[in-house]
């Protein structure tokens, strides 16, 4: 399957259930000093900005760049 087809399928999946990040990137978010991280979706490759919720540290906000 070509990369373009994989990304297209990934984009459709992400539109339905949301973007997915790797466990490694999620772990990084807990140790970076400012609790913010630029990464990309593991499924469709979209650029994402993650920011930890200051009130509930087991949650983070995800913004597509």
Give the topology, please:
Elements (H helix, E strand, L loop, with lengths): L2 H15 L5 H9 L4 E5 L6 E6 L7 E5 L1
Antiparallel strand pairs: 1-2, 2-3
Task: Explain the overall architecture.
The structure is a single chain. The model has no long low-confidence stretch (mean pLDDT 88). It is built from two helices and three strands. It has 65 residues and is α+β, with helices and mostly antiparallel strands. It has one domain. The protein is elongated, with a radius of gyration of 13 Å. Strands 1-2-3 form a three-stranded antiparallel β-sheet, covered by helices on one side.
Could you list some keywords that capture this structure?
single chain, 65 residues, alpha+beta, 25% strand
Secondary-structure class: alpha+beta
Outline: elongated
Give the distance, in angstroms, between the N- and C-terminal Cα atoms.
27 Å
Poorly predicted spans: none
What count of helical segments does DSSP give? 2
Give the helices and strands as they follow along the chain. Answer: HHEEE
Number of domains: 1
- The tally of beta strands, per DSSP, is 3
Largest sheet: 3 strands, antiparallel
Round the mean pLDDT to the nearest integer and report it.
88
Give the DSSP E fraction (strand runs of 2 or more residues): 15-25%
What's this model, at a glance?
The chain is of the alpha+beta class and 65 residues long.
